[in-house]
Amino acid sequence: MTDRNLKIYDLLDAQHSHAECELDYGTPFELLVAVVLSAQCTDKRVNMVTDKLFKVASTPEAFDAMPIEELESYIFSCGFYHNKAKAIKQLSRSIIERGGMPETREGLMELSGVGRKTANVVYSVAYGGNAIAVDTHVFRVANRLGLVDAKTPELTETGLMQAFDEDKWSHLHHLLIFHGRYVCHSQRPDCGACTLREYCKYFLSTSGVSNDNETL
Ligand code: SF4
User: Fold this and answer.
1) pLDDT at 1
2) In whole numbers, what is the pLDDT of the chain averaged over residues?
3) Which residues, 6+ apart, have CB-to-CB distance to 29 below 8 Å?
4) In contact, 163 and 148? CB cutoff 8 Å
5) E strand residue ranges, 28-111
6) CA of 124 to the centre of ligand 1 (A)
7) Per residue in 25-48, pLDDT tens?
8) pTM of the prediction?
9) Residue 89: which of 110, 68, 107, 116 has the closest Cα?
10) At a CB cut-off of 8 Å and minimum separation 6, what does 216 contact?
11) CB-side exposure of 101: number of CA atoms within 13 Å?
């Protein structure tokens, strides 16, 4: 891990020390459902939906038994509700057939409809594993900062895992999400309020400012 990457990590941590998963959940299974619902939807909206949903269903058995139309009626406002309802029903059945919720990333990825990003979130947040889930914020901020130079989420994940010590992976994932959500916006990054300017490849390449820290 280079001094530059450690400095970036420390600056992110100083700015977003409280960074953590913003989805509300009571069990690993509830988190899994919430992560599925969060695709293309804000965490705030998901929390409003799950606040009602988890009162009527919070186990794989309950979701398996719930008619899909009823499930859709609860999750409608999260968008893509047909696909999300189907995914929740499928992963619930998968868990029942396996005899329980898997606790490893590999086991989570074996569940029907659960991809690498979702498995990484549940593995790191619910089970305390070391993993970097690459969503749109992590992908954008990691590439803008020059922590990686990657064209896909998979390559971004691999690059970040190589660039940082394993015990920093999970918190780094939250730091990059918070920075992307609240400072380094997709369309108009708030570089004026950002403490990472002198280390940021994107800022240095677009502002005309040169700084040796970029290549440390
Ligand atoms: S300096 Fe600007 S582009 Fe770079 S991380 Fe900060 S907000 Fe994002």
Assistant:
1) 86
2) 95
3) 58, 59, 60, 95, 101
4) yes
5) none
6) 26
7) 999 999 999 999 999 999 999 999
8) 0.90
9) 68
10) 2, 3, 4, 7
11) 17
Angle among Cα 133, 138, 142 to the nearest 5 degrees reads: 125
Instruction: Give the residue, by CA position, lying nearest to ligand 1 atom 2.
Output: 191
Residue 155 structure tokens: 């390559």
State the distance from the centre of ligand 1 to the C-alpha of 75, rounded, in angstroms: 34
Quote the CA–CA distance of 208 and 198 in Å, as a whole number. 12
Among candidate residues 31, 90, 36, the one with its CA nearest the CA of residue 63 = 90
Choose one of 188, 197, 205, 207 to mutate for the ligand 1 pocket test, by most ligand atoms within 8 angstroms of C-beta. 197
Q: What is the pLDDT of residues 131-151, one digit of tens each?
A: 999 999 999 999 999 999 999
CA dihedral 162, 165, 169, 171 (to 10 degrees): -140
Q: Above 70 in pLDDT, residue 214?
A: no
All residues at 6 or more sequence positions from 145 whose CB lies less than 8 Å from its CB, including other chains:
8, 196, 199, 200, 201, 202
> Distance between the two ends of the chain, CA-based, in angstroms?
11
Distance CA 42, CA 206 (A): 30
Residue whose pair of structure tokens reads 């190589």 in the numeric block? 162
Domains of the chain (ranges, CATH numbers): 3-18+133-215 (1.10.1670.10), 28-125 (1.10.340.30)
- Burial letters for 152-168: b for 16+ Cβ neighbours within 10 Å, e otherwise? ebeebbebbbebbeeeb
